[in-house]
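LOG
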Amino acid sequence: MDFHKELTEKLKTAMKAKDETSLKTIRDLKSRIQSREIEKGEPLTESEFVKLVQTAAKQRKEAIALYEKGDRPELVASEQAELLVLEKYLPQMMSDSEMEALVKQVLLETGAQGMSDMGKVMGPLMKAAAGRADGKRLQEIVRGMLS
């Protein structure tokens, strides 16, 4: 199903169920999509949609961390609820063992030997992970294997 149609259906469902969190989050997502499509001048592809959702999810995670620092549990709960809604639209994330296997494969393909080859490894690695893995976590794994 096209993500536009899916979001519209989820929006209708949230309205009927009076689910304010889902309603707010999906409206925000639709607004981001519309802005990006106007900016771009054409409809978003599936991968661009995923990147947009990842950005929104990352912003929620950062807000959660800041609200936890500021001792604002009500705002933390709100952001976590929105993050749960966004995660439904993200691809399944890779496990640590899958990430380690991917890093080993890319290290073999690139012939990386030490920390100086980090940049040579990260580009192809991020393309291979294609939004299914956290970049910071991949970097940690690469550092561990190259050092």
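LOG (cont.) second protein
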Amino acid sequence: MAAVEVQNFLARAGDFLKGMERLRDDLAQYRSSSALLGIHGAISYSDALRTGMGSNGVSSDDHRSAARELKRMLTDRNFDKPQGADRLAKLLGKKRGIEYSAHALKENTAGDIVDQAQRFAAWAEEIGRKLKIEGW
């Protein structure tokens, strides 16, 4: 069952990141959408990793706890590359401001979020393969 859930989270992550990429060419107009799609893609990758490592909970209202849990799970496995969990925490820290701030997101900030989301996705793909997560 976990393998199917992992695959569903991976499909969702890919969907979000494809949308992010399509909008990236016009960040001046779609900066918030592109940034949020990147963050949601990272959340889905985190859900896939955590589910594949045995977590029963997925990201919901408290996304920051998901980043902490991911780092703890990797540390418990003595995994030597937990820095992606820190990148996830930074991305998640920007989510609420993009959604609710009265200030417009700057284009360069959106571009940085998109870049960080892509880096997190690449890291998550590497981790999923290295850990041989079922369904990856």
